[in-house]
Design goal:
This protein has 234 residues and is an alpha/beta fold. The chain folds into two domains: 172 residues, Phosphoglycerate mutase-like (Rossmann fold), CATH 3.40.50.1240; 48 residues, no CATH class. The protein contains ten helices and six strands, in the order βααβααβααααβαβαβ. It has a six-stranded mixed sheet with strand order 3-2-4-1-5-6. α5 crosses α7 and α6 crosses α7. The radius of gyration is 18 Å and the shape is globular.
Length: 234
């Protein structure tokens, strides 16, 4: 596959009711609040002048609605132009799957995951054992073991980057094309922990409707070499 450089504008979806109620929301879904609709339009205003060549999001309502509102606000996609933009909706771009803990109160869920290890909160799990352990501990605590392990999670997320590269190639996007992706809070934070150099304050979760920018060199052999963080949580 011929390589190219893609400029990725990654937006966290607008606020949902589960966000508002502090509940885990991975593959489950809840509607956007009015604040969430406003989040999407604020992101759309920030990106109104960006010429996008393709757009990607998960197959969750919150992501698709956010995508549609941002594209609808884009000055370069008025009328029929928006219909011609390659848009890919795929499960590869979903948030982490929390299994049995989907929809549970966050504090209760992370206590169940971390307390057996002496870490009764999400922050204490990450501080003592690292981000990967938060996924593995939750899978361990899940009575059905349906929650994604760290390995399962990254296998899926990595397939999303492969899909972006393949779509760019198949659609014959120009080198340096701008790509819009709607993502999710924990996934954005996880990607920043994996790809960002030191200097970013990752104790701050990305806000709903915030924009994070990556440069993606599709010719690189490894994602750690392919991704350059440009900005976070803007």
């Amino acid at each position: 596959m011929e390589g190219m450089l893609l400029h990725m504008y990654i937006v966290r979806h607008g606020q949902t009711y589960f966000n508002r109620y502090n509940r885990l929301q991975g593959w489950s879904n809840s509607p956007l609040t009015q604040a969430g609709i406003d989040d999407a339009h604020k992101a759309g205003e920030k990106l109104a002048q960006v010429v996008f060549s393709a757009a990607f999001c998960s197959d969750t309502t919150r992501a698709e609605q956010t995508l549609d509102m941002i594209l609808g606000d884009n000055d370069n996609l008025k009328g029929s132009d928006g219909d011609r933009l390659p848009k890919v909706v795929d499960p590869a771009f979903r948030e982490q799957f929390y299994g049995y803990f989907e929809g549970k109160d966050m504090n209760e869920a992370w206590w169940a995951a971390g307390a057996p290890h002496g870490a009764p909160s999400y922050a204490s799990i990450v501080n003592k054992f690292g981000l990967a352990a938060s996924r593995d501990f939750l899978k361990e605590a899940d009575p059905f073991h349906d929650a994604e392990s760290d390995q399962e999670y990254w296998g899926r997320i990595d397939s999303g980057f492969s899909l972006i590269a393949h779509t760019a190639q198949e659609s014959r996007l120009p080198d340096g094309a701008n790509i819009l992706q709607i993502s999710h809070g924990n996934t954005l934070l996880s990607m920043m922990n994996r790809f960002a150099p030191e200097g970013y304050d990752l104790s701050v979760r990305p806000a709903n409707g915030s924009v994070t920018r990556f440069d993606f060199d599709t010719a690189a052999d490894r994602l750690e070499e392919a991704i350059t963080v440009v900005s976070y949580n803007q």
